């Protein structure tokens, strides 16, 4: 359902993505892991053109785009295939939880206000946030805001949900509530690509784990096998660093 071919991205002289090739099936949950600066988030942002790749092709569903030359129509069509859930929620501060969902539907998709409200309420219920429909983001915890952001992403009925480290800005006690919603989405066979540092979540929820380093895909395979028994030395070293106890003296 998603095909990425020879995708590259440079920032000045820094090549952040180097000839990435990737295929993702409909309903598949793919977790992307790797050290900071490996290109994980950039890859995600290239898929919906928040970052414009320099070379390569991206296909999501029926939308296909060649990075070197594409029209505004092709760009719009590709962007409509996905929805992003950001690390810092990106909610409208001056709108309620419900309005954060309905506003893009009414303004961007010209959906009737009544219909948008019904959809918004049903999605808030789906992520366990219906009692907070009339509250503003400032009154919500980080985990609650992120659940509203997930509902907003679902509202546009995307072919794929893109999650860019959705729990990294949360207090530890709030991480679980967001991961539970994502687990439920995985059970519903919604296609998801998740950049994450939550290894246990990736291991048990993702169908496949991709390990990236220095702008390339180093290793990929079934989630449990990659995390429990990585074959590449770089992957082994990265996962070992996450589990090793820090030895220090004061």
UniProtKB/TrEMBL annotation:
CDD domains: ABC_HisP_GlnQ. Keywords: ATP-binding, Cell membrane, Membrane, Nucleotide-binding, Transport. Pfam families: ABC_tran. GO terms for molecular function: ABC-type amino acid transporter activity; ATP binding; ATP hydrolysis activity. Residues 2-239 form the ABC transporter domain. It is a peripheral membrane protein. GO terms for cellular component: plasma membrane. The keyword Nucleotide-binding applies. It is found in: Cell inner membrane. Belongs to the ABC transporter superfamily. This is Putative amino-acid transport system ATP-binding protein.
């Amino acid at each position: 359902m998603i095909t990425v071919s020879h995708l590259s991205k440079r920032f000045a002289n820094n090549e952040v993505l180097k000839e990435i090739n990737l295929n993702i099936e409909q309903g598949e949950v793919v977790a992307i892991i790797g050290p900071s600066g490996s290109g994980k988030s950039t890859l995600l942002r290239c898929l919906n053109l928040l970052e414009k790749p320099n070379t390569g092709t991206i296909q999501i569903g029926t939308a296909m785009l060649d990075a070197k030359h594409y029209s505004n129509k092709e760009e719009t069509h590709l962007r409509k295939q996905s929805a992003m859930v950001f690390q810092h929620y990106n909610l409208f501060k001056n709108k309620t939880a419900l309005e954060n969902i309905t506003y893009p539907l009414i303004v961007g998709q010209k959906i009737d206000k009544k219909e948008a409200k019904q959809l918004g309420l049903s999605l808030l219920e789906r992520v366990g946030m219906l009692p907070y429909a009339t509250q503003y983001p400032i009154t919500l915890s980080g985990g609650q805001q992120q659940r509203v952001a997930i509902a907003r992403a679902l509202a546009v009925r995307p072919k794929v949900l893109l999650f860019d480290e959705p729990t990294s800005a949360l207090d530890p006690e709030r991480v679980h509530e967001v991961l539970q919603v994502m687990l439920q989405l995985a059970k519903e066979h919604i296609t998801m690509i998740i950049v994450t540092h939550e290894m246990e979540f990736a291991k048990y929820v993702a169908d496949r784990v991709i390990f990236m380093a220095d702008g390339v895909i180093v290793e990929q395979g079934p989630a449990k096998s990659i995390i429990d028994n990585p074959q590449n030395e770089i992957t082994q070293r990265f996962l070992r660093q996450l589990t090793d106890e820090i030895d220090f003296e004061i």
